Amino acid sequence: MKKHILFLGAPGAGKGTQAELLCQTNSYTHLSTGELLRKEIEMNSILGRQVKDIMNRGELVSDELVLEIVKQNLDKDNKGWILDGYPRNLSQANSLNEVLIKINQPLEVVFFLDIPEEVLIKRLLLRGRKDDTEETIRTRVNIYKKTTEPLIQYFKDLSLLEYIDADRDLKTISSDINQKMA
Ligand code: B4P
Predict the structure, then answer these.
(1) Which residues line ligand 1 (CB under 6 A)?
(2) Is the backbone of residue 99 left (phi > 0), alpha (psi -120 to 50) or beta?
(3) Which stretches of the chain score pLDDT less than 50?
């Protein structure tokens, strides 16, 4: 069973949703950079105040900052982890690689949740989080296409990529992922 897992996909593709489902059946650490950053905003910490406006505009927060959060939260006792929303660009992917070499926990699989743009826009508008306005969603999707999408090829070249059709109901997607975990 694989235990070093990454979810890749556009905003609203369902990375967080599927990572949660997978954590219900395994005792993995779910590491969502978006969730960790939102918690900092809720706590009104120094970090939270730094990232609040950036996230509300739908832009990416700095690589250094996110890397620090990931390092602090990566599972040290090797129970297994699911990274969701990180990396989001090539520089983050290279930093992650260095961290994983150091802790000797190589990535085993990358689930790429593929979804048409019009479906994800509908989903996010329905969810209605603070950064789910039409304008912010457009910004997030444009940044995704420019900076995150190249990671699909990056992980394909490393033979880690598993393609998942994310335009289906939650359970079907989840059982597809579970089959590919073995
Ligand atoms: P994230 O928190 O990663 O949010 P996301 O990409 O919008 O969501 P996700 O794909 O997880 O979708 P979800 O399951 O919630 O990022 C938010 C912000 O944080 C970024 O814009 C950025 O500013 C910052 N950030 C995060 N990571 C960063 C990094 N590494 N570097 C820099 N900045 C970073 O699903 C969405 C909705 O669809 C939900 O309502 C869900 O219920 C629904 N849904 C899911 N699956 C479905 C299905 N199969 N059918 C129908 N509905 C479904």
Answers:
(1) 9, 11-17, 32-35, 37, 55, 58-61, 66, 84-86, 88, 92, 123, 127, 131, 140, 169-170, 173
(2) alpha
(3) none
Measured from the Cα of 33, ligand 1's closest atom is: 27
pLDDT at 79: 85
Closest ligand 1 atom to residue 136 Cα is 21
Question: One-letter amino acid identity for 172?
Answer: T
Token couple for 58: 């739908």
In which domain, by residue range, is 163 found? 4-181
- What pLDDT score does 2 carry? 86
- Domain count of the fold of the chain: 1
CATH number at residue 23: 3.40.50.300
pTM of the model: 0.94
- Position 25 scores a pLDDT of 86
SS3 63: helix
